[in-house]
TrEMBL record:
Domain HpcH/HpaI aldolase/citrate lyase: 33-198
Transmembrane segments: none
Pfam families: HpcH_HpaI
Cofactor(s), by name: Mg(2+)
GO molecular function term, any single one: lyase activity
Organism in which the protein naturally occurs: Nocardioides deserti
Protein known as: CoA ester lyase
Length: 366
């Protein structure tokens, strides 16, 4: 672990005199959808204030998808939007340019003094190893100290290089600022030299095929056989989830580029949710609704989880519910679901109503 390169007792000391004290725990703030907007696009920028309260995170994107000629306009646009908007319960994040780009230093030295008090999280793209996080960590501390900020800005890394994946655990543990990781399937595919041309999602060629039927022990290779498309991203998401869980930070799916294919988008998001991710990116307003639905536990799951919690009493031993064995370990899974439902209900009145309605049903049944 890279934390060992500093004495553990120094790990939570500010990296600049006067910088805010690092957090010991990363707050579990709802972030089902991280909605990307281009701050250099006046039409998109104008919509931002109306989106406050409708999405968990608004992210001003400065990196890829912003043309080189618009980099400064995007940075200035983000400063203006942040200064003029009251974000209420909605978090404000940004994605800065890559650390090897000519723009990133100006991104940091402009944003932190101007809107550092409004920025919750800075997303750093193309992170390769702990050294990238150390660089951002120190410079943020210097800028926070200079600006007199009271709350540390958190850092989120995009996992989108082969070396980044190989170093995923050390990246997560590189700084107490680390808030989470997102999968960057487009850059990661390119860096790995995968033979795909898409932004996230599956591929029809990545499949398994059932065995041929046999007649008298002879395989009929001419028979038609079912095939099942596989998830190209399973390995990376699973590694990401473990690395994040081990360090008490949060994993996210990333972009799903086929905006029109809402069904496949929902499937990809759900796979990530089931594996342990807390949210995803939204590249179009219609993906916000998908993300909010998928990354909120279903009413049925919450109802079941509450039943298990109630049936398990002091949390030890085993009980039978509907013919299934429940024990300490299934209780812990249920508690994850119940706690998440409570966190989300606190910011989402519609969801709260749905979860409360089942609580009412359970009481009237009892
Ligand atoms: C996101 O940045 C990606 O490269 O997929
Ligand atoms: Mg990328």
């Amino acid at each position: 672990m890279t934390a060992a390169s500093r004495s553990p007792k120094d790990f939570f000391r500010p990296l600049a005199v006067g910088a805010p004290t690092p957090l010991r725990e990363i707050p579990a703030r709802p972030s089902r959808a991280i909605h990307f907007f281009d701050p250099s696009n006046p039409k998109m920028a104008a919509k931002v204030p109306d989106m406050v309260g409708t999405v968990d995170v608004l992210l001003g994107n400065l990196e890829d998808a912003i043309k080189a000629d618009n980099k400064e306009a995007a940075r200035e646009g983000l400063v203006r939007i942040a200064q003029e908007t009251d974000f209420g319960p909605t978090q404000l994040w940004t994605r800065i340019n890559a650390l090897d780009s000519p723009w990133v230093l100006d991104d940091l030295t402009t944003l932190v003094p101007a809107i550092g008090d409004k920025l919750d999280v800075i997303m750093v793209p193309k992170v390769q190893g702990a050294e990238d996080i150390h660089y951002v960590d120190r410079i943020l501390a210097q800028l926070e100290a200079k600006a007199g900020l009271e709350k540390p800005i958190l850092v989120h890394a995009i996992l989108e290089t082969a070396r980044g994946v190989a170093n995923v655990e050390e990246i997560c543990g590189a700084s107490p600022r680390m808030q989470g990781l997102s999968l960057g399937p487009a850059d990661l595919a390119a860096d790995r030299r995968m033979k795909t041309t898409r932004v996230g999602g599956g591929h029809p060629g990545y499949l398994v095929r059932e065995d041929p039927p046999r007649l008298d022990g002879v395989a009929n290779l001419e028979a038609s056989r079912a095939t099942y498309q596989q998830d190209l991203w399973h390995y990376t998401i699973a590694r990401m989830v473990d690395a994040c869980a081990m360090h008490g930070i949060y994993p996210y799916y990333g972009p799903f580029g086929d905006i029109s294919d809402t069904t496949a988008c929902e499937d990809q998001f759900r796979n990530a949710f089931l594996l342990g991710c807390v949210g995803t990116w939204s590249l179009h307003p219609k993906q916000i609704a998908i993300a909010n639905r998928v990354f909120s536990p279903s009413v049925e799951d919450v109802a079941h989880a509450r039943r298990v919690v109630a049936a398990m009493g002091d949390g030890t031993g085993a009980v039978m519910l509907d013919g299934k064995m429940e024990d300490d370990a299934s209780l812990k899974q249920c508690l994850v679901m119940v706690e998440l439902a409570e966190q989300l209900a606190a910011v989402d009145p519609e969801l709260k109503q749905q979860y409360d309605a089942i609580a009412g049903d359970e009481q009237s049944e009892a």
